[in-house]
Fold this sequence. Notes:
The complex is a heterodimer of chains A (about 800) and B (about 160).
Chain A: H1 2-28, H2 33-53, H3 56-73, H4 81-102, H5 106-111, H6 115-124, H7 131-140, H8 143-153, H9 166-192, H10 197-221, E1 222-224, H11 226-229, H12 232-243, E2 247-252, E3 257-259, H13 260-281, H14 285-290, E4 297-306, E5 309-316, H15 323-332, H16 338-343, H17 346-351, H18 374-383, E6 387-393, E7 397-405, E8 410-418, E9 421-426, E10 430-435, E11 442-446, E12 449-454, E13 457-463, H19 464-467, E14 480-485, E15 491-496, E16 498-506, H20 512-515, E17 520-525, E18 531-535, H21 537-543, H22 557-565, E19 569-576, E20 581-585, E21 589-595, E22 600-603, E23 606-611, E24 614-619, H23 623-632, E25 635-641, E26 646-660, E27 673-679, E28 682-687, H24 689-696, E29 706-710, H25 715-727, E30 730-734, E31 746-750, E32 762-767, E33 780-781, H26 785-799
Helix pairs in contact in A: 1-2, 1-4, 2-3, 3-4, 3-6, 4-6, 4-8, 6-7, 9-10, 12-13, 13-18
Chain B: E1 5-11, E2 14-19, E3 23-28, E4 42-48, E5 51-57, H1 58-61, E6 73-79, E7 82-87, E8 90-96, H2 110-113, E9 116-122, E10 125-130, H3 132-137, H4 152-156
Parallel strand pairs in B: 2-10, 5-7
Antiparallel strand pairs in B: 1-2, 1-8, 3-6, 4-5, 6-7, 9-10
Amino acid sequence: MDDLLAEFVAETREMLEAIEGEIVVWEADPADRARLDAIFRFVHTVKGNCGFFDFPHLERLSHAAENALAEVRAGRRSADVQLVNAVLAIIDRIGEITGTIDDGSSQTADSTANSADELLIAMLDQDAQDKDLAEQVEHHEPQAPAAAAPGTSAPAVTPRSIRLPVDLLDRVMSGVSDMVLARNDLARRLRASGSEPAIDGPFERLSAILKDVREATTKMRMQRVEHLYNPVPRLVRDLSAELGKQVMVDLAGQDVEMDREMIEMIRDPVTHIIRNAIDHGMETPAERRAAGKHEVGLLSMTARQTGNRITIAISDDGKGLDIGKLGKKAIAAGLLTDQEVSAMSRDDLHQLIFQPGLSTAETVSEVSGRGVGMDVVRANLDRIGGGIIVRSKPGEGTIFILSFPLTLSIVSGLTVGIEKQIFAIPRSFIEEIMHGAAGAVEFSSIGAADLVTFRGQRVPCLSLTRVLGLSESKELQEKTLLMVRLGTGDLFALAVDQVFDHEDLVVKPLAPAIAASGVYAGTTLLDDGSPILLLDIQNIADQNGLVSEVRLRPTDPDERQKCSAAPARPIMLFIGIDGRRRAIGMDLVRRIDVLSPDAVDIEGNRAQIVIDGAILPLIGIDQQARDQIAAEGKIKLLRLSDGQCELAYAVSEVSDAGTIENEIVPCEKDLSIEGVTLIGGLPVPIVDGMALFAQYGRFETPHNPLTCRLPADDEWSQSMLRPLVEAAGYRIINSSDNAADDAADVTFVMDQADTVPDDSGIIIRIHSNENAPASPESGIYRYDREGLLAALMDARVGTK
Amino acid sequence: MMNDLLVMTEIAGRRAAFRAVEVQSVLEIENVSSIPRAPDFIAGLTAMRSRSLTVVNCRKSLGLPAENAPDSRAAVVEIDGHLYALQVDKVEDVTEAKSAPVPINGGFGEAWERVALGMVETAEGPALLIDIAQMVAGPPAEMHPIGSDKGPSTIAA
């Protein structure tokens, strides 16, 4: 809170300084609209901030001044001498109070509001034209500074934070960068002159210190969005309490880093939007209930870094913008005609909110609704090269999306090389990096366009060399592919010769002549001091028609047909234990497992593996190979399934996923493969899943086994009969499990028992007299294994 | 303008002067990294005290053919917050202007007119005072390929 308070004081002081000139001009010419607006904004901001800090008197003063000025702005009152004097007196008083707050006695400062303040407010009153009042003020006025004097003369407390001009920070930063460059130069020279221990030690120390200083200076400029978010919950709480609404805040993206200056620039706009959202957007709990919504409204704020822009979205689930009212206001203000408004789309009408002087608020509250705000918000964002859009749905809510450049911020970048030149790409765009020669990557040229097939998806492929108009000296296969995901969700591959490193780059704007080419977003210096360019990925994609619908460039219709006629069959490429490349249909592969070779059991032609307690047939491996793998300590398996049974296929490496696009040439001699196809220019045998399962597959026990009821209290049944029945594939239900609804398919009845617990299924009677004849009435002798199994088998057939 | 200091240079064999107040320094250019797809008169980027500079070839900016390599020293100027290094044939001395810049009858010629602020008299004789903003702006698009014999007449045909 202390920090915030210090910010408040500093901000108010800065504003006061800035406004001083305006006041003088306004005094000379009270009709000057621009000055009036500036002063109005000042008191408006002070009022807003006071509400936040709970300085009721300061707030009353500024609110009174704001009210009076609003009247003047609306043309209902003229700025006469008395009003000007009163406003000026209030502004002076605001300055005094601010000073006292700064001296530490924050609460007392505000509460020292004396009768003079009341007089100041009274003076604003239109009817209070009598001179006595003015005179009274004159008498009172000297008291105010006197009251503040003891505070100001007291020794100042050491400040915990200071405000610095940003260009000073810039100077420090560029100084530190220079030091790094000088250090690098020195390092080169030291290396060239050979090792000198007397110098090396101190030099190391210097380097370490420099690194720390550099990090610290970098941090000086950067702030997490958190700093922007911190006051929000309190602001929302206070506002909603004041307005009798219930609002919950949801903040996301706190860790996005932004230029400190940027945060300061958007702090006011964001505050204004939040105020507006709660004041106008959110309904009261009763209204929300009536609309079938949750009583508590939700205000959410998210920050994202997309490429070289930061996006902050502020949304509420309130009643949405009232376009009818916006239109009427615009007409009333003379901005638009009836016809114009009726011809406008919803979206365009929403944008009217950014027009100066338009506000949808019906009543002027203390919070907002004076038409200050949204126009100023947009002006502020324009100034930093940002933008704002609004989307709203009646009854559902409104979202404001603020976006602004990252120009001065640090971009996490990837340095890449083409034809001996280095460029940087914002890392946020890059989803994956892979080599053109990787098994998973496959190129095809469709017309003049290059496509790359990546994880079964065909994506356009651009060569950076060609994008930059340089002559190509490498094949795409020899290049490294960056899979680039655009903000719009479009994916494309950018081929570069080399990928060097990840670096944090301080990006500076480009000279207009270079920026005009549209392929660069900025320039930055590498650690060795050489300048490189940051690529404008979004624009490059745009120039090449890769954004949104235009996924494929128009191509020859024949080729296009050919392309769509053969739907690509997804396959998995792998290298077998024998080192040969093979492929298998992706739909057969359930998962890839890595297990210990101990789980493998090979004997003669039989190879099995234990996976998750189940024994599966193992293919693709023999005893000799197993021994080799045992040394490695792990075995990689493809687990194949035809939907009913599972097989394990041992492989030495899984290359990647791909698709079959070329013809499969059958091979009659080798029945274990479907045939051979060309993938990435190499022949790959495709394992025939059908033959595989026909040979090795075995049906597992059905998933829903038959149930068998055994007497739970009979020891023999549990110890002797149970394993036998379970081995026959039955699930055991004990008769004591009192589950009437769980009818068993087979029920064993002991000769001693007279009652049959469950007669819904087949009943097998068991007796213990070895010599008794086997008959349906007496049942089966308890040690007649064959008889029991036969009975169980019969039962299975019978129930099916 | 009288007694102003001028940085004297030579561009395409002609004496050209820059206002010394506009020239931040004279830089010995070591490495220029070229910029693919940038206009022809932009030679590339170089660095000075951890800032990037856009290197402008003055001959090409005038639409004149660049016959011989420019001087390794370049004049550094700042326009709208961007730093530029202006490559000229030769950077000479700093001298004092002996007159205000004046236009000459008949103009300075097609290539020079755009960048000319006027003629100034110096101790070393008259020189053309250069408008640096025009110099870094480069040739207007239509007269861009002046060296390559593609005049408006061929376009009309």
